[in-house]
Specification:
With 111 residues, the protein is mostly beta strands. It is built from no helices and 9 strands. The strands form 3 sheets. Strands 4, 5, 6 and 8 form a 4-stranded antiparallel β-sheet that branches. A 3-stranded antiparallel β-sheet has the order 7-3-9, with no helix packed on it. It has a two-stranded antiparallel sheet with strand order 1-2. Strand 1 and strand 2 form a beta hairpin. 23% of the residues are buried.
């Protein structure tokens, strides 16, 4: 195996380049509010550590939205990646069952 998933984090078992993909579905986002999905290395949102998806603006009240993000990150054995979701709904929102996914695939030792 190329890594392990625990506590909302995926950690590689060896260094290399990894294709990280995420999709999040979420309902109840109201008119003109925003939603965005990202993948972060070590929880860091600085340049080079975060892959950002498009910012999606809800078209009407109670919108069910889905955001997708993917990209390649270099990872060492002491790194981890995790899927993040931002919204400005104003209250906690649950992700949609069956519409939220996260995958990591080893690409190679050089890119």
């Amino acid at each position: 195996p190329f890594g392990k998933f625990s506590g909302g984090r995926w950690t590689p078992t060896f260094s290399g380049y990894y294709l990280c993909c995420g999709n999040v579905g979420m309902g109840g986002i109201d008119d003109a509010e925003y939603f965005q999905v990202s993948i972060r290395r070590n929880g860091d949102n600085s340049s080079g550590n975060e892959i950002e998806g498009l910012v999606i603006k809800a078209p009407n009240t109670g919108s069910a939205l889905a955001g997708t993000v993917s990209g390649i990150l270099p990872l060492d054995e002491n790194d981890y990646v995790s899927l993040w979701v931002y919204h400005d709904e104003g209250a906690t929102q649950d992700t949609a069952v069956g519409r939220t996914h996260f995958s990591v695939t080893y690409v190679g030792s050089s890119f």
